[in-house]
Amino acid sequence: MDENNSEKEIQNREMSCLIKEKLNSFGTSISPEMFEEFINFSVEKLWVSYTQNWQEKESSIQDKMNALDISFPNGTTNKEYAQSFIIDDDEFERIEFEGLENVGLQFLKDEAANAFTIKGTPTIAGDFDIKMKCYYRGWIPGKNILERVFHIAVNPDPRSLWKNIPTSSEIEYYKPDSESFLLSVENEKNVVVASQRGRSHAHEGKARDDDFKIEYTDSKWYLTAVADGAGSAKYSRKGSQIACETVINHCKEALKDSTMFEEFIKFYNDDAENPTNRKYVGDNLWNIVGNAAFKAHRAIKDEATLKGAQLKDYATTLLLTICKKFEFGWFIASFWVGDGAICIYDKSSHRINLMGTPDGGEYAGQTRFLTMPEIFSDTASLYGRLKFAIVEDFTSLFLMSDGVSDPMFETDANLNKVEMWDKLWENLNHEIDFSNNNEQINEKLLSWLDFWSSGNHDDRTIAILY
C-alpha cells in the first residue's frame, strides 16, 4: 500500500470516529450498518445540494458573461485590426480567447484597467468562431470553464481581388502596360513622368489608354504632354499617342528659333499692362501651342480615315506645357482640353497657379476631347484654353490625367486649394526622393502610381517638372 493511500485511510477512519462521537453526544446509538447508510445518505444529499448551488452559480455567471457588451466588427486581410472592451466585474477572474491564431490576431490585457484588446493583422479571409473562456472567482479544476462564442468575418483585401492580365502584344496599336521616363538637365530642373495601366483595364487584360511625351530642346525649352484616351473609345490608346507625339514634335520644330518669341516674353515681363505686349505673346503662343493642338487633331483624323474608323474612336484629352527659364523667372504656357490638371506649385510661397480648368461634357461624368470638332470651331473658347504665366520660381509643375487628380483631389473645386497640393507634394515626398541625383526616380514614381483609392481604378499618368 502506498503512502498516500495509507494517509487517506487514516483520515477516513478519523473522520468516521468524529462523526460517531458526535452522534453519541446526541444519545444516539447506531449500528455499523446504520452508520454506513447514514454516511451514504448524507454525502448524497450534500453532493446534490453542492452541485445544485454550483450549477446555479455557473448559470448566473454565464448569464453575466452573455450580457457583456462585446462585439467584433468585420476585418480585412492585410489591414490592421483592433477592438477593445472592458470587463469591470470581479466575478471574472481570468479571461482567455481560443482560435485567434487562426485569424492572425492576438489577445492583450491591461490588468490595471480591466481592459482587453483583440488586435493584429488578419492574414486570411473567411468566417471565424472565436471562443471566449472564463475562469470565474472560486473556480477549481474539475469545474466547468464557461464559454461564449463570437463571430469574426474577415473580408479579402479588395486589392487582392483585382486580376493583372497582361495586354496581348497581338492587338492593334499595342503599347506597354506601364512606362516611365526621367529627363535630367544639368544644373537645371528635371522632368519625371510615369504612366500606369489602371486596375479596371488590367482586370480585363485591356490596354493602357494614357500616353505622354517630354522633350528638352536645344533652345532650352521644356516640352511636356500628357493625354488620356477615352475608355469607351476602342482606339483611344492610339489617339493619345498621336496627340502627344504630334504636339511635342510641332513645338520642338516651332521653338528651334525662338528668339523673337522670347523677346516678346521679355517685353511682356517688363510691361505686362501693355495690351500690345500681351497680344504679341498670345499670337506667338497660338502659332506654337494652338497649332500644335490643331495638328494633333488633324493627325488623329487622318489615322481614323486611313483605318476606316470614326474620329470618336480615337477620343483623347490633351494637356500640354512649354516652359523656359529666363533671368527674370520662368515662362510657362499651357493648352488644356478635357479633365485632369495642370498646376504650377510653389511650396515656399504657398501658392499655386492652376493653368486652366477641367471641362466636362454635356452630362455629369463626361469630358471634352481633342477629337471633338467643336473644340476648334469656337475661336474664343479655343483661345481660352491657352494660358501663360511668369513666375520667379516654383517647386514643381504638374501635369496629370484624371486617374491621378480624381483620387487625389476628389472634386474640381479642390484643385484650387493650395492645401490639397501641399498634401499631394507631401504624399509624393514620403515615397520619393526628388533630389537631382536620384536616377531611379521614374521607377519610384511608377511604383507610387499603384496607390490604392477605392472606386478609382482608371489609367494614371503624371509628369512633374521639379
Total number of helices: 11
- Estimate the strand proportion: 25-35%
Indicate the percent of residues in helices: 25-40%
Order of the strands making up the biggest sheet: 8-9-18-17-14-15
Note the overall shape: elongated
State the end-to-end distance.
Answer: 93 Å
- Low-pLDDT stretches are none
What's the short story on this structure?
36% of the residues lie in helices and 26% in strands. It has eleven helices and 18 strands.
Question: Your description of this structure?
Answer:
- This protein is α+β, with helices and mostly antiparallel strands and 466 residues long.
- The protein folds into three domains: 2-66, no CATH class; 70-160, Sandwich (Immunoglobulin-like), CATH 2.60.40.10; 175-465, 4-Layer Sandwich (Phosphatase 2c, domain 1), CATH 3.60.40.
- It has helices at 3-25, 32-67, 199-204, 236-254, 259-270, 275-307, 374-377, 379-384, 402-409, 418-431, 441-448, and strands at 75-76, 81-86, 92-98, 105-110, 115-120, 126-136, 146-155, 178-183, 191-196, 210-216, 222-228, 318-326, 329-337, 341-346, 351-354, 386-391, 396-400, 460-465.
- A six-stranded antiparallel sheet has the order 8-9-18-17-14-15.
- The longest helix has 36 residues, at 32-67.
- The N and C termini lie far apart (93 Å).
- 32% of the residues are buried.
Write the layout of secondary structure elements.
Elements lengths: L2 H23 L6 H36 L7 E2 L4 E6 L5 E7 L6 E6 L4 E6 L5 E11 L9 E10 L22 E6 L7 E6 L2 H6 L5 E7 L5 E7 L7 H19 L4 H12 L4 H33 L10 E9 L2 E9 L3 E6 L4 E4 L19 H4 L1 H6 L1 E6 L4 E5 L1 H8 L8 H14 L9 H8 L11 E6 L1
Parallel strand pairs: 1-7
Antiparallel strand pairs: 2-5, 3-6, 4-5, 6-7, 8-9, 9-18, 10-11, 11-12, 12-13, 13-16, 14-15, 14-17, 17-18
Helix pairs in contact: 4-6, 5-6
